[in-house]
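To whoever is on call:

I kicked off a structure prediction for a single chain this morning and the downstream step that reads the tokens threw a length-mismatch warning. I double-checked the sequence; it's 370 residues and nothing unusual in it as far as I can see. Pasting both halves so you can look.
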Amino acid sequence: MAIMKIKGVVKEYAWGNKVFLPSLLGYEASDKPQAEYWMGTHPSGEALVGEVPLSEIIGRRLPFLFKVLAIDSPLSLQCHPNKVQAKEGWKKEEELRARGEAHNYQDDNEKAEVLCALTPVTALCGFKEFDSAVKCLNEYIPLSFEKYLKEKKDSKDLFLSLFALPVSDKLSVLDELCENIEKKGENKKEGEFFTPDGVISTVLKKYPGDIGCVFPLMMNVVHVAPGEALYLEPDTLHAYVSGNGMELMTASDNVLRGGLTPKRIDLKELSSLLYFGASFPEDVKKRENNGIINYMTPSPDFMLSRMNDGVFSIPSSIDAMVIVEKGSAEVMENNEKISLGKGEVCFIEKGSSVKVSISGAAYMASEAYV
């Protein structure tokens, strides 16, 4: 089959939204938060063709993993390995996996990712310049800075020193942060985006006692408008805070956490992956190709694209997936045709001569091709 309708997998995580995915995908809302919709061949959540895993139908696994994210509250601070780090980490943990013990790596692949906002998205992404981070820390936790952080020379030193504090000292730092946020009384939102104060207030409420609540003072708060996109290199500390979006990534589920989580944190492994220098994500450039709007990233493994009202030819050199965000679509290959409604997904196998007719808007995940 050159074209086939597929069904993805809904993931229920605590940070998810209860209504966005049910509304998009057309199923009844649940009492449990619906956080991610996976469309791909990763073993942790593989799409099906009828009752058969997609990888069995096409005889291979795809290099990318396509998701819809529905973010109701902040995710954990996290980063991902690059290719070399992932292969080394996977091999290093072979005995841990065999014994069923806690481990960091779920596969041996890197995890770069791009998120295109469907609604306004606020995210934490990368470290500020060191001097800027010091200024913020001095403004929000001056007593703690003087006591614990004054002699630190770079962002890595600040980060690791905060983690190393005894529990009682961590709570003292968080109490000071909480008190000063309330005193400042700054706006928590600008329209639908969280301000930096809003981010800190939100994480303090969700993760009381977690020293990760201090790290937004050291990080960039990024706003992504609908239709715009954010690209994250594997070594970048980040956390999505709010909003909904289409996410495309290398086919990996490798996550190293760095705070704002009840889950396991391996600080040594995390710090070996993280880039602690200043980095601010650039806007992802868009390039139109035969009417298809492509989001251009450095990744050779994937490309995210958008198609609005019209008929589009899908390059025959790529495997691709198309999900309808609004309206409907028809996917045609010779005499074969598949109709898609809102939230439905079609897989297009490489080597096919396929056209997609869209009334509304759809997103496509594929291998990089331009």
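Update from on-call: the warning came from a stale cache, not from the record. Cleared it. Sanity check on the structure: Residues 78 and 253 are 12 Å apart (CA to CA).
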